[in-house]
Amino acid sequence: QVSLVESGGGLVQAGDSLRLSCVASGGTFSTYHMAWFRQAPGKAREFVADNTAYDNTAYSDSVKGRFIISRDNAKNTLYLQMNNLKPEDTAVYYCAAKRTFNFDVWGQGTQVTVSS
User: Fold this and answer.
1) How confident is the model at residue 100 (pLDDT cuts 50, 70, 90)?
2) Mean pLDDT, the chain, whole residue set
3) Backbone angles phi, psi at 75, to 5 degrees
4) Cβ atoms of residues 108 and 5 within 8 Å
5) Distance in angstroms (rounded) separating the CA atoms of residues 79 and 2
6) CA nearest neighbour of 77 among 8, 10, 4, 27
7) Alpha-carbon distance values, 83 to 15, 86, 89 (Å)
8) HSE (CB half, 13 Å, CA atoms) of 23?
9) What angle do CA 51, 37, 102 make, to 5 degrees?
C-alpha cells in the first residue's frame, strides 16, 4: 500500500516562505506523477502544481513564479517551495500520486495560514 505524509505547514506572514514536504512509503515513488493541491475554507480543492515521473512541471496561474515543485526520488519525497506567500494562499495543502490514470493516493494534508 502506498501512503503519503505531508509536513511543513504553519502560520506565516505575507511575504514569507515555507517549504512543504510529502514523504511516500510503499510503491515505486519514482514512477508516479505527483502533485500538490489545496483547499481553502468553503472552496473546492484546486490544483497547485505537478511533477511527472520525467520531472516535467506545471503550475496554476495563481502560484506561477512564486512556488517551485520538486522531487527527490532517492528520498521518496515531493517538495513545494512557497515564496512570497499571500493571504489567499491560506489553505490545507495535499499531495497526491497518480499511479495509473487518476490521482488515487492522497495525503492527510498540512495547514498553511498566511496572515496579512
Assistant:
1) confident
2) 96
3) -105, 5
4) yes
5) 17
6) 4
7) 7, 9, 11
8) 5
9) 65
Task: Kindly tell me if the per-residue pLDDT of 35 is higher than 90.
Answer: yes
29: helix, strand or coil:
helix
> How many Cβ atoms are within 10 Å of 115's Cβ, its own excluded?
11
The cell numbers describing 82, all together, are 512557497
Confidence band of 47 (pLDDT split at 50, 70, 90): very high
CB-based contact 24:35 (threshold 8 Å): no
Cβ distance 91 to 10 under 8 Å? no
Q: What is the Cα–Cα distance from 109 to 37, expressed in whole angstroms?
A: 9
Q: Which residue has the cell 506561477?
A: 64
User: Which letter does DSSP use for residue 21 in this model?
Assistant: E
Q: How far apart are CA 88 and CA 97, in angstroms?
A: 25
Q: CA 64, 38, 32 angle in degrees (round to 5)?
A: 80
